[in-house]
TrEMBL record:
Alphabetical UniProt keywords: Bacterial flagellum biogenesis, Cell projection, Cilium, Flagellum
Functional summary from the UniProt entry: Required for flagellar hook formation. May act as a scaffolding protein.
GO BP field: bacterial-type flagellum organization
Name of the protein described by the UniProt record: Basal-body rod modification protein FlgD
Record bears the keyword Zinc: no
Record InterPro entries: FlgD, FlgD/Vpr_Ig-like, FLgD_Tudor
Location of the FlgD/Vpr Ig-like domain: 111-189
Pfam families registered for this protein in UniProt: FlgD (PF03963), FlgD_ig (PF13860), FLgD_tudor (PF13861)
Family named by the database record: Belongs to the FlgD family.
Domain FlgD Tudor-like: 87-234
Amino acid sequence: MTEIAATGNSFLSDMSIAKKNPTEPQSNELGQSAFLELMITQLENQDPLSPQENSEFIAQLAQFSSVESLDKLNNNFDSFANSFVANQALQASTLVGRSVTVPSDRTELKAGGVVSASVDVPSSSGDILVNISTEGGSLVDQISLGVRPAGELVMRWDGNQMEVNGELLDWQTSQENGIPPGTYRFDVSTRVDGEEVKLGTALSANVNSVTVGTNGGLTLNLAGIGAVGLDDIKQFNE
């Protein structure tokens, strides 16, 4: 795998599939040159009293043409695959340093930064509570969002204040010196039909680096979250 931590041109030269997956020579493969040599040897050593039929010779020429076509097809595919991996690597370099939103219950709060959170609120839900705790499980704050309509709930939290759907809540952290930068866990819950239900969250996180796999697949390494696949990205943030 190749890890990209900053935009640059030097890594593109290392993205060749041939370099990533060197092919071991196969002694049992019949290539174009070997096929042609075999056919010429057969013609030179045929019985002059019983020469090869024209139909057999034409059939062998057809086989030779097929081998040649397959060889060209393989070369074209390798070229296409190399270009695909290089293109993936170039795209990966543009993601480093950006913020993305992924399904997660924890993320990193940077100094002076803001964490965005998205929650799907079911119908007939009661008061929505947001518990914010440290990685070790110590509760930092509990925020009541009240009763909210069904649909997507978007929150923005800077460690001191909380904004919900564009409106600033009348709330401030209970921590005397504010909440310091670090990795925090978000547990969002409500009551549906009298029972407590935990709601899934999607949190924003910074892309620290991108790993390009040998097959061209991208894995994003997110601050406070870890490795996630490109398909897990819910949103690219501004």
